[in-house]
Amino acid sequence: MGHPHEAHPHASLLSDFILGSQDGLVNVLGILLGLVISTHDVRIILIAAFAALAAESISMSAVAYTSTRARRELYKSEVERELREMREVPDLEREEIRVILRKWEFSGDELERMVRDIEARPKMMLDLMMAFELSLAPVPENQPRKSAQVVLAATVVGSFIPLIPFLLFPSALVTDAVLAILFSAVTLFLVGWYEAQTTDGITWQSGLRMVLIGLGAGFGGFLIGVAANQL
């Protein structure tokens, strides 16, 4: 009888989800609060918010793709460099393995035996150097595309949250602004709660931290709107 498969959240995709949802929500919330102070024309507010939603979603998705692709290319280039050093300067590479093993309290004959065993397995030696000397993790070939898709979807969904009151009650801008803040706070808390659930953190602390960071950033848009209105 086989062992049941244990599912683990993918750290990169979790990060992409949090980045996209928080960025989209905070960006649109800040724009909405700033515009409510500056104008009473709900059409202008909605046009600006949807333009920001589109631009932010596309740009965030593109950044996620290019940055993840860059991490993949970096990993591949470092693998080639490590393989070359393993062939050309094996003494130096063995010493680097010793440095890693000493941190794990290996010493004496046991240390040297471990070094020989690792050196006899080039794949193990390469993986060890990549992870514990260079602190780099492999990036699958399809990861840039997945990251771009997750960030795009999360940014669009996050951006819609503060827009909901303005779409439902377009004639009550002050009420809309208050509801947008409340909807955003609840969503940010749930995102922080989800993060804590997947990382074994304290759920209420993570949720509250996400709310404070997100609403603090959104409040910046409100202050800019106040300043622009005064000018």
Q: Care to describe what's here?
A:
This protein has helices at 11-38, 42-88, 90-103, 108-119, 122-132, 143-160, 164-168, 173-199, 203-230. The protein is mostly helical. It is elongated and about 80 Å long.
* Average pLDDT taken over every residue: 87
- As for the number of domains, it is 1
Structural class of the helix and strand makeup?
A: mainly alpha
* Order of SSEs: HHHHHHHHH
Give unreliable regions as ranges: 1-9
The rough form would be described as elongated
- Helix percent reads over 70%
How many E strands? 0
Report the biggest beta sheet as strand number plus sense, adding barrel if it closes: none
- Based on CA atoms alone, the radius of gyration comes out at 25 Å
Estimated share of beta-strand residues: under 5%
Ends apart, CA distance between termini:
73 Å
Total helical elements: 9
Q: Concise description?
A:
The chain is mostly helical and 231 residues long. The chain has helices spanning 11-38, 42-88, 90-103, 108-119, 122-132, 143-160, 164-168, 173-199, 203-230.
What are the SSEs and their pairings?
Layout lengths: L10 H28 L3 H47 L1 H14 L4 H12 L2 H11 L10 H18 L3 H5 L4 H27 L3 H28 L1
Which short descriptors sum up this protein?
mainly alpha, 231 residues, 0% strand, elongated
